[in-house]
Every structure is written in C-alpha cells, then in structure tokens.
Recover the amino acids of this structure.
C-alpha cells in the first residue's frame, strides 16, 4: 500500500501516572482482541506490530502532534478536510463539537482568551502543510524510540536518563583498528 493511503494510528496522550499509557494500551488491546476474536470465532492477533511510544517535548510539540494526527486522513486522501473525518478530534478542537473523550491540552487552551478564539487560532494552524522532514521526524520518533522535541529538550533527557534521544547512524558502529606502534 502506498504511503498516501496509509493512515498511521497515532494518539497524543499525556499520562497522569508512570507507565499509564503503556498499561492503558495493553489493557485495551487485550479486551478488544478478546472481544473481536470471540465475536468472529478467531484466535489471531489483530495488529502487525507492538505498541510504540515516544517522549514528546510538551512545551513545544503538542500542537504539532495534534495537527499531524488530525491531518492523517487528509494525507491518506480519505477526506479533503480534517473536520470531515468522523473519528477525528478536529471536530472538537477546531469546531467546538462536544466530545467527552477529548481533554484539551494546556497549550491548546493558551491559543486564545476564550473558546472561540482558541478554536479559531487552532483552525489557522491547518493551512500550513508539514514538510517531508517534519512528517518523517514524527513518524520515526516512536519507531526508533527517540525523543520528539527541541534539541535542548533532547539534551536534558539524555542527561537525566543516560539514554540516546536522537536517531543513531544506520548500521553497526565502526571498530577502530589499534595503531601499530613503530
């Protein structure tokens, strides 16, 4: 299937407790798979791969991630506008439709002084298209288990965790030949 017809199943979630997202996805997955398999008398897995997540710079990237997710059906040529996709949070975020499953992020709420200003400012973000490098960075962050954010944020996370936060070089590291003493 071509990339233009692939809809990446991403969600932007902020956990309230450690490992909250992982536990939520695992629990939901177990119950959903059991329900589908029982209903359709099957025993197979429903998904091709494992759940993947990426740490996101919450001071700079939530709105970027929200736009990316809500534009997925547009990129996949399923709809012409994100508000046309029924399972999108755009109807809530951009149009003000009630949705009990959507809780606004603080950065979303800071887009304006009142609800209409916030929705208007949010809608104004959508005419700006993502460049190929932005789409690649967002897609690859969970695949490579790296951080999505500003360079200074990545540096802070590396210092705190002593783990890599940026994509590495492809392939195995080079082995340096010892210098022969003469």
């Amino acid at each position: 299937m071509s990339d233009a017809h692939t809809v990446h199943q991403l969600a932007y979630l902020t956990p309230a407790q450690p490992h909250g997202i992982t536990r939520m996805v695992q629990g939901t997955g177990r119950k959903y798979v059991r329900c589908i398999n029982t209903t359709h008398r099957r025993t197979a897995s429903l998904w091709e791969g494992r759940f993947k997540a990426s740490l996101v710079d919450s001071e700079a990237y939530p709105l970027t991630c929200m736009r990316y997710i809500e534009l997925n059906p547009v990129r996949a040529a399923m709809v012409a506008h994100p508000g046309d996709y029924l399972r999108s949070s755009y109807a809530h975020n951009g149009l003000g439709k009630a949705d009990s499953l959507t809780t606004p992020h603080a950065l979303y709420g800071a887009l304006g002084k009142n609800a209409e200003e916030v929705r208007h400012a949010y809608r104004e973000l959508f005419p700006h298209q993502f460049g190929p490098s932005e789409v690649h960075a967002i897609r690859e962050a969970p695949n490579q288990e790296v951080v999505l954010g500003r360079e200074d944020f990545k540096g802070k996370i590396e210092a705190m965790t002593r783990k890599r936060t940026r994509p590495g070089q492809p392939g195995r590291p080079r082995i340096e030949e010892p210098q022969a003493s003469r």
Q: What stands out?
A: The chain has seven helices and no strands. Residues 20-39 form the longest helix (20 residues). Helices lie at 20-39, 62-75, 90-93, 106-109, 115-124, 132-144, 151-161.
